[in-house]
Structure formats: C-alpha cells, structure tokens
Amino acid sequence: MELEKLLGELARPAATKMVLVVLDGIGGLPVPECGGKTELEAAHTPNLDALAQRSELGLAHPVLPGITPGSSAGHLALFGYDPLKYIIGRGVLEALGIGFPLEPQDVAVRANFATVRHTPEGIVVTDRRAGRPATEHTAKICALLQENIPEIEGVPVFIRPVKEHRFVVVFRSPELGEQVADTDPQAVGAPPLPPRALTPEAAKTAAVAAKFLERLAALLKDEPATNYALLRGFSRRPQLTLFPERFKVRAGAIAVYPMYRGLASLTGMELLPVAGETIAAEMASLKENWDGYDFFFLHVKGTDSRGEDGNWEGKVKVIEEFDRLLPEILALGPDALVITGDHSTPAVYRGHSWHPVPFLVHSRWVRPRRETQGFSEAACAAGTLGHFPLLYTMNLLLAHAGRLTKFSA
Amino acid sequence: MELEKLLGELARPAATKMVLVVLDGIGGLPVPECGGKTELEAAHTPNLDALAQRSELGLAHPVLPGITPGSSAGHLALFGYDPLKYIIGRGVLEALGIGFPLEPQDVAVRANFATVRHTPEGIVVTDRRAGRPATEHTAKICALLQENIPEIEGVPVFIRPVKEHRFVVVFRSPELGEQVADTDPQAVGAPPLPPRALTPEAAKTAAVAAKFLERLAALLKDEPATNYALLRGFSRRPQLTLFPERFKVRAGAIAVYPMYRGLASLTGMELLPVAGETIAAEMASLKENWDGYDFFFLHVKGTDSRGEDGNWEGKVKVIEEFDRLLPEILALGPDALVITGDHSTPAVYRGHSWHPVPFLVHSRWVRPRRETQGFSEAACAAGTLGHFPLLYTMNLLLAHAGRLTKFSA
Q: Which residue intervals define the domain Metalloenzyme in the entry (chains A, B) (predicted)?
C-alpha cells in the first residue's frame, strides 16, 4: 500500500492542534570566518534550545540525499505529497509566485520578453532577456497586451508581469492539454521554436500559444528591445487529494510571500490574513485563528532570503527574531509541534542546497536525547529521530497529535 | 528487484543457528514520575547491557515513521514480509488468536453476538455487543450453533467462541471469495446490513453468510440478549512463500499466546511445544529443540501486556526476568542473535505506539559502538545500525549467520 493511501485510511479527526513551522532554508553550513559556526549554532536561541531538550530531533531529506529541492518540492514533502510524484511546473510556480488565482483547468506559462531581429529567413533571437527591462516597463507592456489580447479563439488569456523581463501567461479552458514544448531556443542567433504540442490533447494549446505570439509580435513591433516573447514551462496545477480531506483537519496557512500562500492554497489550506509581513504579525494571526483550525502551517521567509543573499549575520538575526517569538506558539499549547525547513540555504552557499534540514518534533509523547543539546544541525544529526524523508513530516505530526489509528490488526 | 525476491535468491543453507527474540512491545517512553526513565532504562539488565557492548544497536520502524502497527504487521516485518503488502484480515487474526488451524481456502469472520428487536419494517440492532455476555455463555451458544449448523450448502462451517460477545466463524470451501462487506451497521437503532459480495468471486460467500445468519436467528430467537450476530473482517490467509522455503532454514517458533503461534504457523514455522507459559519454559523449549532447527523465533508477551495495562513497573520486571534468562540463550552459542520488538508499547501510552523499536544484533561480525552503553532506546538511537525498517531483520540475521551469498558480480 502506498503511503498516501495509508495515511488517508488511518487519519481520523481529533480535538488536537498541530503547528508546522517552516523556517524556510533553515539548514546552514559552518563558516570559518564566523567562528566555524552555522547560522543556527551562532544564533542566541534560548527558547529553541530549551524546547529541543524536551523534543525529538533529526535531519530530514526533502527529496533524496544529494538532491537540492526547489521551494515547491520541499513544501510538497512537508505537506505529505511525494515531490517525486507531484511535480509543479514552472508556469504554475511563476503564477503562484505572483498570487495569481489558478483554476484547475488553467495552463500557466512562464514567459520572458526577448528581442528578435527580422531576417530574410525569418526572425532570430538577439537577446533572450530583452536587455533585462525594468519591472515597470514590463508591467506597462503586459497591460497593453492584456488590453489587446483578452482572449484567443474563445480562450480567455491572462497576462501578468513578474519581475524584469519575466511575465506569466495563463490560458483558461477545459479543452487545453499542457504538454507543449518550450519555445526558447536557448541560444542567441537562433529562431524561436514554435509552440509544439507533445500530445494530441495539447494541439489546441499550441495553436492558441502560436496565435498569442503572432499578436504579441504585431503589437510590439515598434518596441526597440521588448519586441517578442519566449514561452516555457507550460503546466497545470497537479491533481491531488486536498490536505483537509486527506488528513481530516481544518488547515490554515500563515504565510506572507505569494508563492507559499499559493502552494498552501493548491493543497486546499485556507489562507489566513496576516496584518503585515513580520514574524510577529504571523504570530498574531496564529493566535487570532487558533480556535478555528486544527492544523497551522506557519511560514518564515527571512531565513531563506538572507541565506540566498549570502547574509550570514542577517540569517542569524532572523533565527533570533523567531526564537524570541517562539514562546507565543508554546503558550497556545499545541498538541504537536514541528519546527523545520523546506530545504537548507546556507549563507555561505548563497542558495538552496542538498543538505538535510534540521527537524524538531515536540509533544507529550517524545523520546528526547538525554545529553545537553540545542537546536542545530549537529544536535539534529545526533537526535533520536535519525535521518528520514521530510515526506514523513505529516506522519509524525498526526501520530503525535493522536490522529492516526493503528495500522492493520 | 524486490527485497523478497532478492533474499530468496541469495539465501543459502549453512550449518549456523539464528535466534530472533521478540520482546513484544519492548520500546517505551520516559516517565517523569519514574525518574524520567523508560522501562528499559530503569530495568536492571546486566546481561543485556554486557551483550549490547558486543553488539550493534539501532532503532527499527515496523512500518514507517509515525505509523503505529498492529501485532500482525510488526511480526510480518520481523519475518521478512512487507506489512504494507501482506495484510492480515481481522477475521484471520481472530481465528489465529484462538489457535484455530486455518487452511488456505478458509474464509474467517470476526463475529459479535448482538441484540436485535423485531419491528414491522424488519429487525433493528438494539445492542451491538448483546450486553457483553459472559465468555461461558458465548461458549455455550457457539456449541449450540455448531451442533445445528455443521454446514451450509455443502460448505463446512466452524463456530468458535473467543471472549465475551466475540466469536469466530470459518467457512471452508475452495469456491469462496473473501471480499464481503461487514454487516455491522455501527449504530444502534439501525438494521443489520446484509452480507454483500464486493467481487463476483465472493457471491457464494455472501449467500452462505446470509443463510448462516438466518439459521442463527431462528436458533436464538428466544434468547433475551444474544439473539443475533454481526459479521466483520471476512478474510483469508495471505498467500506467501513460506519462511523455511524462502530462507532455506528449518524454523521453529516458541510462543505461548495463540495469536503469535498462529502468525508463525502462517509463515510455515513449526510450533515447538512449551511446558508452561513462563519465559523459563520457553528457554527450556529452546534448549530441547536446539539441534533440530536453524532458526528460532522466541516470543515474550509480558512486556506488551504490562505496557497495555499502563503497568510501568510490571514491564520493568518482565524485562529483568528476561535478562536473568538471557545467559541461557548465549550459552547455546547462536551464530546470530537479534533481540528486538514488533512495536513499542510504552506503559505511559497504554497501547501500541509509532515509536521505532530498540534493536540489537549480535554475532562475531559486528561493529559495536566504542562508548559504554546499555540496551535502551537512547543507546539504540545512538547505535551503529542507525534507523532502519524492521523489515530488514531477516537480512541482518541471515547475513550475520553467513547465510546470504554476494549480490551480483
């Protein structure tokens, strides 16, 4: 029996509360110039350290050892969806990232403005990013396109700016397959590729996309740089059994960044309002909504952003900020609490990495390690949970919250 | 290649002896009122502790992290059968629990005596457990039923009491499918559900079961409480390659409780006689049978029973009792010895739990941990075996006993 089916059969409602705190990109690496410490080791975290003493620690692999996950893969695992089974396409991810309300039938495409030159043999790409236009310029062009291309052959079209040369196109129709090849030739001097259907069901999508490019080229023919577009990552929302149904919980998501709100909403969690962008504002939302939900996903973005920037000290500060607020979660008395990440983002690495993520689970049913320890990569490596797939996060949360019945007789 | 096929191909006979000791429900949780210790930590176990120094320790997951296994799932894993692949139905388990010799063709059903009331619209259930009759009463009624219903439409029927309102019905015929829906409406005031075939192959089973209920109702119509029965868990023995054949061993099982004897016998192990119900009696059986077998499954029930009762001290005492007798096993000089459980049953949790089970393997080929350690959950969490699926128990036993050839060239 598959894990997904198994959990669905064993999950039962209960009067218990669960909190899943995701410190995005929490895992780090030791930095010689910073006393040889990781961000978690250097941070002054009396509350996390005290909690670690009364918790089980371990290291969790978002996908597999050595595999660096994108944000969507890490979060899918955290929510109990196998990231090797459910793939979120780049078009969908880009749409989620700007908070676009994707419907199940939508085909989303990640688009780049590009510059093309006309030659006797046809057009060729001269700049795959159109000289990286300002975001404002992209927004203006997208508005122009949206006004002139509201639909193609009866298919509603949505055009939204993202950042610099990037924008999103969404085609909405139940008749569209999503298997269409990228049009980016990946080389300057080459002609853009036509949108080619990879399955019979995607024929109409390819035709609509080709017409979209035709009309876009006509509308932008006098633009000096942003006179064409390359389309990538045609995709639809993955079809998955929704989180509240699978786990028999009322699930609320507390996140500030659109992509994470989008990921939570893909799985059917309710998005809870947050008044501001701080961790304190997220905590306030948790308190306000405490009675209305059984499960809370609380996402902290700063740890990942500082890590991506290579800002070791900044990441330490975000960890300390969370630590100061941790007592507010504990005061609510969750029956089961997990604090972990969706992947590691070591500041010294300046990006997502493959290193397993520190993981803490707290409930009244834990086997803590006796020896003094804080919450760090090293303490987690020596923790009583050992190494395990991050996909088992929901198993552990549900078990510790008394929400899984016994398997088999 | 699947593990099961792999082991089958690699296993070879050898002149070595293996012992698998299952301390049922051995894993525990720390209890503040008991010095913050688990049962294993508190128990005075000089022999286990000394053995742990010369062994590899680890923590094993019977099914998956967070999943609490029933006894059958844990034992299937121990015997090398994937518990997510081989499911033992409730009817079969109930039959095993009373030592009924199930044949491969038998469909076993877990039955409850119930009370029904006659209304103009038909019968409705007024007590799903018939007021919990005394076991003696159930035995008397079962004898009456057996006498009057020896067969139905040529299908032999076996009716056996279990405890209080519970009994077992077995239909024996090669023509019977087992996919029949439960008849328990799970609510008082509702009519019992008819035995409904869920597959075409089960049509005859459903018809025979319906006739069984009809005749039962007629025979018991004057009983004040036990005047009807609800049927659940129609099931057949799982079809599996037998243990002695898979592993090329002569396998003997030493267990006192019928369910564990039944599980062992399902896999084709021989049941060895035990003169009494004590661990000492089991040890005597081990010694007596030492020359006749290559593999011994030795099951200790007390650890689980005390755990289920919430009797922390009682569980400690059973562990100490086993420890005193452990030298008798060592004196026999097994080539490979595993001491573990089928699941954890922390006394403070009063039931099976999802926590991984302490695991010890001893042979001349071990990598022990250098630091002084006893045999406890914490020592196993820090052990050289790490965390692993309990399903690999037979891999380890066979390997340490020199009974697995090299895989691939």
A: 17-391
> Which of the four pLDDT bands, split at 50, 70 and 90, describes residue B380?
very high
CB A343 within 8 A of CB A300: no
Measured over the CA atoms of residue A348, residue A349, residue A354 and residue A359, the dihedral's sign is: positive
CA–CA gap between residue A201 and residue A182 (Å, rounded) = 16
Instruction: Answer yes or no: CATH 3.40.720.10 is held by domain B3-87+239-400.
Output: yes
Q: How large is the ipTM?
A: 0.90
**Tens digit of pLDDT for each residue in A358-408?**
999 999 999 998 887 799 999 999 999 999 999 999 999 999 999 999 998
8 A C-beta contact, residue A157 and residue A212: yes
What class has domain A3-87+240-400?
A: alpha beta
Determine the Cα–Cα distance for residues A341 and A246; give it in Å rounded to an integer: 22
From B381's Cα to the closest Cα of chain A, the distance in A is 5
- Contacting B with CB below 8 Å, chain A residues are 1, 3, 6, 10, 365-370, 382-388, 392, 394-399, 404-409
Count the Cβ atoms, other than its own, within 10 Å of residue B252: 22
Residue B365 · residue B387 · CB < 8 Å: no
AA letter at B391: L
Closest by CA position to B262, among listed B170, B344, B198, B357: B170
Instruction: Quote the radius of gyration of chain A (alpha carbons, Å).
Output: 23
A401 SS3 class: coil
Q: Which of B73, B349, B382 sits opposite A408 (nearest CB)?
A: B73
B34 vs B28: CA distance, rounded Å: 12
* Burial class for B91, CB neighbours closer than 10 Å (0-12, 13-18, 19+): buried
Domain with CATH 3.40.720.10 in chain B: 3-87+239-400
Which residues of chain A neighbour B83 with C-beta distances below 8 Å? 407-408
| Separation of CA B407 from chain center | 31
Phi and psi for B176 in degrees, rounded to 5?
A: -100, 125
For chain A, residues with pLDDT lower than 70 are none
The Cα–Cα gap between A80 and B354 comes to: 17
Nearest to B279 by CA among B333, B339, B336, B335: B339
> Which two three-digit tokens encode residue A81?
């969806």
Residue B357 pLDDT > 80: yes
Q: Which two tokens stand for residue B391?
A: 């399903």
CA quadruple A5, A10, A12, A15: dihedral positive or negative? negative
CA–CA separation, B256 and A332 (whole Å): 48
CATH 3.40.720.10 region(s) of chain A? 3-87+240-400
Q: What is the DSSP letter of A103?
A: -
Which of A297, A325, A328 lies closest to A393, judged by CA?
A: A297
Dist. CA B211–CA B224, nearest whole Å:
22
Find out whether A69 and A360 touch, Cβ atoms under 8 Å: no
